[in-house]
């Protein structure tokens, strides 16, 4: 089981315009529609390091931090205890973002490959999600169209093991207040403008390491932030 023991060390209105209805057709949104959706979920004067109309803890805003040596640029590491996602950069740094993770045993630590990326994706709950929480998910049995209220939000990175789609995603969320908690059905959630920034930097074929939420938690030393 993966642990987070040694992978990182560091030295006005919510939306710009009112939320509109999602695309009401079983097809992909146009470039103009995607641009409109992006404008809806991005705060006016957006600055990744300071914009916080969602009221999340400031530590969950994007920050550039130092990364331990030996990590592969382009890879993603998710610290499930601190609720951070790190995107490793060349030159010994990483961008750190706040995330929410899966509830209880729905969170699945492991090593995954990102084999698909989608802007403003469709979403369909899995059969197990519908069986587990029919009152929440049964109404979406035929899927949910792209848009600001879609469960996958503005961007999704699809996690595979080999050629098998695990149905786990790193994705935007219309519930930014959940960041920092265990709230999802297994996926890693991010604030939508944050994953919009990350999305263009992640290559198909990159590796995502999801670390255990409970095992091998250590106390950081002076000047370290996990």
Q: Can you describe this structure?
A:
The structure is a single chain. The protein is α/β, with parallel strands linked by helices. It has a single domain (31-210), classed as L,D-transpeptidase catalytic domain-like, CATH 2.40.440.10. Helices cover 13% and strands 26% of the residues. It contains four helices and eleven strands. The protein has helices spanning 31-41, 127-132, 134-137, 192-199; strands spanning 63-66, 76-79, 84-88, 93-98, 101-102, 110-119, 155-161, 164-173, 182-184, 188-191, 207-210. A nine-stranded mixed β-sheet has the order 1-4-3-2-11-6-7-8-10, with helices on one face. Strand 2 and strand 3 (84-88) form a beta hairpin. The longest helix has 11 residues, at 31-41. It is globular, with a radius of gyration of 17 Å. The model is unreliable at 5-25 and 216-226 (pLDDT under 50).
Can I get a quick summary?
Helix content is 13%, strand content 26%. It has 226 residues and is an alpha/beta fold.
How would you write the strand order of the largest sheet?
1-4-3-2-11-6-7-8-10
* H and E string: HEEEEEEHHEEEEHE
Second-tier CATH architecture: Beta Barrel
Number of domains: 1
Oligomer: single chain
The first-level CATH class is given as: Mainly Beta
Question: For the CA atoms, what is the radius of gyration?
Answer: 17 Å
CATH topology: L,D-transpeptidase catalytic domain-like
Question: What proportion of the residues form beta strands (DSSP E)?
Answer: 25-35%
Give the proportion of residues in helices: 10-25%
How many DSSP helices?
4
* Contiguous runs where pLDDT drops below 50 for at least 5 residues: 5-25, 216-226
Largest sheet, if any?
9 strands, mixed
Give the integer mean of the pLDDT values: 82
* Annotated CATH homologous superfamily: L,D-transpeptidase catalytic domain-like
Distance between the termini: 18 Å
**Structural class by helix and strand composition:** alpha/beta
């Amino acid at each position: 089981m993966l642990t987070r023991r040694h992978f990182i060390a560091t030295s006005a209105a919510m939306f710009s315009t009112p939320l509109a209805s999602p695309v009401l057709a079983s097809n992909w949104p146009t470039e103009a529609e995607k641009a409109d959706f992006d404008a809806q979920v991005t705060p006016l004067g957006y600055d990744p390091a300071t914009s916080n109309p969602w009221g999340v803890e400031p530590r969950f805003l994007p920050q550039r931090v130092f990364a331990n040596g030996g990590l592969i640029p382009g890879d993603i590491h998710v610290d499930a205890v601190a609720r951070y996602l790190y995107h490793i950069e060349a030159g010994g740094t990483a961008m750190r973002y706040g995330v929410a993770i899966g509830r209880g045993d729905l969170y699945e630590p492991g090593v995954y490959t990102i084999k698909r990326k989608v802007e403003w994706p469709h979403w369909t709950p899995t059969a197990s999600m519908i069986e587990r929480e029919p009152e929440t998910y049964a109404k979406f049995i035929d899927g949910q169209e792209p848009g600001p209220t879609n469960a996958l939000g503005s961007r999704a990175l699809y996690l595979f093991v080999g050629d098998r789609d695990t149905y786990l995603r790193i994705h935007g969320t219309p519930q930014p207040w959940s960041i920092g908690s265990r709230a999802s059905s297994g996926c890693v959630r991010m604030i939508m403008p944050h994953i919009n920034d990350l999305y263009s930097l992640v290559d198909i074929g990159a590796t995502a390491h999801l670390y255990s939420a409970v095992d091998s938690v250590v106390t950081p030393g002076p000047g370290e932030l996990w």
